[in-house]
Amino acid sequence: MSLRASRLALGSVVVALVVLGLKFLAYALTGSVALYSDALESVINVAAAVAAFVALRVAARPADAGHPYGHTKAEYFSAVAEGVLIVLAAVAIAAEAIPALLHPAAVDAPLPGLAVNLGASVLNAGWAALLLRRGRALRSPALLADSRHLLSDVVTSVGVLLGVLAAKATGLAFLDPLLALLVALHILYSGAHLVRESVGGLMDAAVDAQTEARIRRLLSEHGEGALEMHDLRTRHAGRMTFIEFHMVVPGDMTVTSAHAICDRLEDALSAEMPDIHVTIHVEPQEQAKHHGVLVL
């Protein structure tokens, strides 16, 4: 998994550099502030792609004495850093757009620049779709964050293209910097959402309700011999999901029999949920709380 994810991240660096060059060429051909804002976001794309590549290399390291649960959370640092960079890009775009809005200038010869920008957007869209599909399959927060950022960039670029065309067609030069400000607000929202989502992973956020329901169903269906499971807790760490709970068994059950139930539960969970770590605390019948997951 780690090798495939790292190769995709390295591919993102190459694609980001190509897109960056194309978008700055589009800006140079038009002088459009909106296209400049679009190109400036691509600088962030390059930095984010490099951060994702480094994070995935760190996350691939095996567990060691200092990090017994592995290094998978490193991917969240990449996603947080990407979110912060996006916010900084929004500020830089706004700083460029506000003076241009106060003193708008006509956009020069936009069609060649727009064609170049459109080509960069098509490349971005194709790569973003690939990252989204592979990021979900590999359960990689870093790849998913990169794909969502690129998809946001594609939406921004389409808006920029339409806005510059409108400015040229109507002769209303202020539409160009106005659109750049709207781009900045869109990027700011995207960055804030990405930071919030990634911080949730760093803060050991639980799995979503649908996944928790699936875990409870598997425990109930494959816990034959136990009486109940309670105090279920879950958390994400990059692609890894950690699951722990208490399992109540009859007081006279042997350790061997209880261990066999634990193995069966771990196998059932692993079959449906790859990359998981399960911890089970076995308790005698008198510790039953009569709530949680009752065994079918």
DSSP summary, beta strand count? 4
**Low-confidence parts, pLDDT < 50 over ≥5 residues?**
none
User: H/E element string?
Assistant: HHHHHHHEEHEE
Structural class: alpha+beta
* CATH architectural group of the largest domain: Up-down Bundle
Number of helices, counting only DSSP H or I runs of 4 residues or more: 8
Q: What oligomeric state best describes the polypeptide chains here? A: single chain
CATH superfamily of the largest domain: Cation efflux protein transmembrane domain
Give a brief outline of the structure:
It comes from Deinococcus arboris. The protein is of the alpha+beta class and 296 residues long.
Provide an overview of this structure:
By secondary structure, the protein is of the alpha+beta class. The chain has two domains: 2-202, Up-down Bundle (Alpha-lytic protease prodomain-like), CATH 1.20.1510.10; 209-294, 2-Layer Sandwich (Alpha-Beta Plaits). The chain has helices at 2-30, 33-59, 74-102, 110-138, 141-170, 175-202, 209-222, 255-272; strands spanning 228-237, 240-249, 276-284, 293-294. It has a four-stranded mixed sheet, with helices on one face. The model has no long low-confidence stretch (mean pLDDT 82).
